[in-house]
# Entry
Amino acid sequence: MNVRVGQIHGLLGPNGAGKSTTIRMICGVLSPTSGRVKIDGVDLEESPSAAKRLLGYVPEGAPLPMELVPNEYLRYTASMFCIHKKERDKLISYWADRCDISDVLFKPIGNLSRGYRQRVSLASALLHSPKLLVLDEPSSGFDPAQNAKFRSLLNELSETTAIIYSSHQLPEVEATCDSVSIINHGKLLFDGELTAISSVKPSLVIEVSPPSIVEQLNASETTQIDSNWVRCSINATESETVASKVSSLDGNIRLIQPEAESLESNYLRIISESGSAS
# Structure
């Protein structure tokens, strides 16, 4: 698996697939039985301290010292990475603002919501400007507005940082990531751009008016948009004739597009095929 600066790379797989083991090896908690882990060219086994200085990690559930306030925790994190005192407070203020935790910097972590604790953990992981950021279920506890801000921050960070994004939330991965690795039973099943995993159904989505003509189009999956327009699916083989057919029925078309399968449907297909193959 190769994760480059400039991309957010999803790590997907069912429970027990090996995602947590993979993350632990990347972070230097477990030693791989074979293969190498390199972060920005630094071999983790040969130079563990140097490699870990290039790494930022947000674990699932954001386990933090509940008795501290975020400012204390971030100061402690800064000391671990030997950040000079003159720079420490500036960095804490900067990342607290970027991660939307400025208003809780002096409140006990144990009193914070799950979303706030997640953002404190993220600020801690970014404090030393890592070259690789590893995120394990990072958006848990976020509301929709916080999710949107989080995705915007990740897109900006990806310009200078390689990002691994491990999650079970496939719509979040689809909305956030540029590329993805899918693993199952410890084996890599797919590794590449999200566009490469997308497949197109042999059908078209169309929007037609008036709704009464839909019955004559051999359409399926019909959804009424409003009193004048209906969205439905038709066989792709009818793409060349549907316009003239609708016109002959005194109707109108405002949308014709291929119906693409979601990441979820392709993910389930790949996992299912790997199970049948084994």
